[in-house]
Each structure stands twice: as C-alpha cells, then as structure tokens.
Amino acid sequence: MTLSLWFTPPPNDPITSQLRSLITTLASNCPHVFPNSPVFPPHVTVVSGIPESVDPEEVMDKIMVELRRRMDVGPLGVEWEQAETGKTFYTRLYYPCKASPGLLGIAEYCRHAFVPDQSEEDAEKWVKETYYPHLSLAYAEPETGENKEAFEQVKGTEQELGIGKGWVGGKIALVDTSGKCEDWKVLGDRRVW
Fold first, then answer.
1. CA 142 to CA 85: how far, in whole Å?
2. pTM for this structure?
3. For FRET with 18, which of 63, 125, 138, 161 sits at 20 to 30 Å CA-CA?
4. Each residue of 41-66: pLDDT tens digit?
C-alpha cells in the first residue's frame, strides 16, 4: 500500500463543484470513450510513493511547517489552458497544469521528506525533469475511444459549467491510493494558501 499527497481546490470555491461536475459528466456521458471511468475528487498529485507506515498527522504537520517557512515563495496554485489525452490510465484525459513556484517547492520538499531513498538532490532533479503536474478528468486505458469526441464533450461541458482555468489555495491531502479508485481514502488534510 502506498500513499499520495494531493493538492485540491478550495472546498467552497465554484471551481470545485464545476470540476466535480465535469468529471462526473465525462464518466457518465462517455462510457464508450472512457469505459468504466470512476468518479474521483478533483486533484493534482503532489507526490506519490509514500509508505503506509507514516503517521498522517505528522506528515501534515511537517508540510504546514515547511509551507510557513516558504511563505516568501508565494501561494500554492495551478493554471491550465485546455485538455489533453495521455498514454496512461490516469492521464487518459487531463489538464496539464502550470504549477506555481510554491507548489513546485512543496512537491520537491515532500519528495525528499516522505518518499524513501530520495536525497535533496534527487528530489530537486525529479521536480525539474520528471514531475508533471496535471488534473485528471477521466481515467481509462489510452487505446479506448475517440479523442475528438472526448475533447468535444470537455469543451461543451466547460462552456455549460463556466469552468475556470485554475485555482490558488485549497487543501493538501494525504490519500491512501492503494486499491481501486472508489476505495481511496483521505487520511489527513490541511487548508493551504
């Protein structure tokens, strides 16, 4: 079992309900494009591969201390332009995100602090060369469905819901992402700026 850290939109911000509606609409209206796509909370994964042996409260407390230490870097936030299709189950349809310096910094910190065998140099290299912040919209095997129909559905739903193009602040959540998506469980979270 492994755990992941997610950056989620502010609970009371309209973007949260808009993204939930988009994810739900894609799962229910396009079963031939995204077969068996589950409905999941909108989030950007900060880091994954955290061992289950960690104490969730201790992880969350350490993140908050680090965020306060880095206040001069600015808030956590993401922006995106348009949806893209990917080559993995979790990136079948997603928004590639431009992460704020604050989010990139906390991703680097969390990689080093909580993922085994990650030196500061390893974590810095990972953020620069490997980390790809994205907001998934539908999970499915990449070879399923037509991309054109997927993009049309996203565009139509975005316009209908008036979906924004990002958020600032929200929550950092430690999530048990082992097993099926519908079994994922938030183990701890904190509001962030």
1. 8
2. 0.90
3. 63
4. 999 999 999 999 999 999 999 999 99
